[in-house]
Design a protein that fits this description.
This protein is mainly beta and 199 residues long. It is built from 2 helices and 15 strands. The longest helix has 13 residues.
């Protein structure tokens, strides 16, 4: 296993990485749209990657990438297959297929943590990077796909990062390589950035 390609979200015209998701339902579930993804390389075991944007207070899916083993409406994916009325284009480098631009409303209710400026010295080649490994972090609160609130959490995240690096706060993922560590690195839980007692 290895580091995974993260979903992204554009906030204030600036791309961010989705570092955490907290909601009763998944942020985007392909099978709910007749799409069954399949792994296409070690950096994308789940078989799909999403790019979202916040536009006029609405959360939108604007790009979706699928691996070559995906199916759409029960048929193998191919160049020209339409998703949300837009044809897929094939990437000849890795055999993946991407559809964009889209403007698909995402009726998510919950919180998202978006980060930018990954601190390279903290990079671990496994799963997804938690929010405390980014220089800038913003929390978005959504209600049925509408932006209900936001706040800059960079100062809190910086304090947590300093405490983890100083050893006064344990790494929420646990000891690297320890039991359960790999599973935790694949999680997008808020607790990986804000351990209990720090929120």
């Amino acid at each position: 296993m290895t580091a995974q390609i993260p979903d992204t979200i554009v906030v204030d015209a600036t791309p961010h990485v989705l570092a955490a998701v907290d909601g009763a339902e998944p942020l985007f579930e392909p099978t709910g749209h007749g799409i069954v993804p399949g792994p296409f390389h070690t950096a994308c075991y789940r078989g799909f990657v999403c790019s979202f944007t916040v536009d006029d207070g609405r959360l939108l899916l604007w790009e979706l990438t699928l691996g070559p083993h995906a199916t759409v409406a029960g048929r193998p994916v191919s160049g020209g297959t339409e998703i949300f009325g837009t044809p897929l284009a094939e990437d000849t480098d890795d055999g993946s297929f991407t559809v964009a631009p889209l403007r698909v409303d995402v009726p998510f209710t919950g919180r998202l943590l978006a980060g930018r400026g990954l601190i390279e010295d903290l990079h671990v080649n496994m799963g997804y990077a938690p929010g405390w490994k980014y220089e800038h972090v913003v929390e978005l609160v959504l209600d049925r796909g509408r932006l209900a609130g936001r706040r800059d959490r960079s100062p809190e995240v910086a304090a947590i990062r300093r405490a983890i690096l100083a050893g006064t706060l344990p790494d929420p993922d646990g000891e690297r390589g320890g039991k359960g560590w790999v599973t935790r690195t694949f999680s997008l839980a808020f607790e990986r950035t804000f351990p209990l007692g720090t929120r």
